[in-house]
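The pair is set out directly below:
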Amino acid sequence: MTTKQVMAKLKSLGTAQTRKTYGRHGVTGEMFGVKYGDLEKLVKQIKVDHELALELWETGNHDARILATKIADPERLTAKVLSGWIKEVD
């Protein structure tokens, strides 16, 4: 899947109620409001795709970033990338 395809899928899965819930739990910034169960289904489809994970993180979208952490290849994650991700967590 491409970043564009994944973002479109995430957008289609998001709901206002989930956005409201995430907001109450401290999520700020852009989000579609995708339930974690739906994210897990995408993880099963995508499996490990490190390049896609890096691209999804760069979108700044909360849902895309959660997905990125689940499909990134831990063997290829560098300390620099992880430090950057930690600094950007909202």
